[in-house]
Amino acid sequence: QVQLVESGGGLVQAGGSLRLSCATSGRTFSNYAMGWFRQAPGKEREFVAAIGWSAGSTYYAISVKGRFTISRDNPKNTVYLQMNSLKPEDTAVYYCAATLRTLSYSSRLTNTRQYDYWGQGTQVTVSS
Length: 128
Fold this sequence. Notes:
- The chain has strands spanning 3-7, 10-13, 18-25, 33-39, 46-51, 58-60, 68-73, 78-83, 92-99, 117-118, 122-127.
- Strands 2, 4, 5, 6, 9, 10 and 11 form a seven-stranded mixed beta sheet that branches. It has a four-stranded antiparallel beta sheet with strand order 1-3-8-7, with no helix packed on it.
- It is built from no helices and eleven strands.
């Protein structure tokens, strides 16, 4: 089992920044690729970003590319999502997820079904 706990959400004005953290425990963190997803009210959960186990590979949704940065600190068992230039449409509950699958050119890990473990989510609200 892997336990995931997100933090860092909150209320921010459009154009502002937030950094989300996802602390993990239970298994060897460096074995897992990690992803961030988000879910707005009335919408399906959607992919935001993914990072490989070694942090050498990342992948972003087009809607956040250039504004968001995913990173990880393996000794701290934590993955981060730095969110800059936030927009009202970024408002959602943000979830981190873990998978033993490998992030690669042929497998971008953008599907929720590719992940084995999920956190409880943290709310991000961007006001206009």
